[in-house]
Amino acid sequence: MDDFVLRALAAGCGIALVAGPLGSFVVWRRMAYFGDTLAHSALLGVALGFLLGVNPLIGVVGVCVALALALVGLQRRRALATDTVLGILSHSSLSLGLVAIAFLETLRVDLVAYLFGDILSVTTGDLAWIYTGGAAALGGLLLLWRRLLAVTVDEDLARVEGMPVEALRLAFMLLIALVIAAAMKIVGILLITSLLIIPAAAARRFSRTPEAMAALASVFGIAAVLGGLLSSLNWDLPGGPSIVVAAAALFLASMMVPAANR
Question: Is residue 177 part of a domain?
């Protein structure tokens, strides 16, 4: 097997391992639109990274963190509904990123690769970033697991018990931002959220505990990566979209099987 295929497999499986548990919380907390907003802002981070002469991944993390902080601040003011704020930030940041890249006249930027991923071009350096960022995100999630579960089940009760609800929400947003930066090259900015949501949604029907759902979501994510890469290599299809289609096929198949918790 060629080296580039092995690197693609390693990168995709590494992201799937982290996306499973995080995606489970995204599903539980109904934060899919928030994930889209952060993902769309990643393009602005790429543009700023090129403009400032730093690694685009650093720019992505910086912009995602800034957007998460801005969202928390806007939610506290409660001047607008959360979905309205997310809609404004999502499309504004994506459009601003496209405009900023248009000003990079001396630099050729492959927009298709950033928008839809280019998993077959993953390098050894990309693998190091993916596994370092993924390990940091997974470690942070493990430290916050029980408190995040408590806030997810009943936010008001968690607040009464003295849990820092706002800080936990912000920490979770930052973990998602880190995973988005790591996964950008795998499935692309426009498809990152699907890798978080679809495997978790498929795993939900077969899980009796939160931990089981998180683990099964990772397994489904890895299966989607394997299926997508095989389809891409056999039929010369784009890698990122093929992985998402494979995940969607797994979800549809899961809907035809009786759920374990019913």
Answer: yes
> Quick check: 181 and 57 in contact, CB under 8 A?
yes
Longest CA span, the chain? 59
Domain assignment of residue 185, given as a range: 3-255
Of 64, 15, 57, residue with least CA distance to 36: 64
pTM: 0.88
Q: What SS3 class is residue 166?
A: helix
Contact assessment for residue 34 and residue 67, using Cβ atoms and an 8 Å cutoff: no
CATH code at position 137? 1.10.3470.10
Quote the DSSP letter at residue 119.
G
- Measured CA distances, 182 to 18, 99, 130, 200 (Å): 10, 23, 5, 19
**Residue 262 forms part of a structural domain:** no
Instruction: Name the DSSP letter for residue 259.
Output: P
Closest CA to 148 of 22, 18, 61, 20: 22
pLDDT of the chain along its 262 residues, tens only?
578 889 999 999 999 999 999 999 999 988 888 888 888 888 888 888 888 888 887 888 888 888 878 877 777 776 677 778 888 888 888 899 888 888 877 777 777 888 888 888 888 888 988 899 889 999 999 999 999 999 988 888 888 888 888 888 888 888 888 888 888 878 888 888 888 999 999 999 888 899 999 999 999 999 999 999 999 889 988 888 999 999 999 999 998 887 655 4
Residue 180 lies inside a defined structural domain of this protein: yes
Give the tokens for residue 16. Answer: 């799937």
Counting the structural domains of the chain, the total is 1
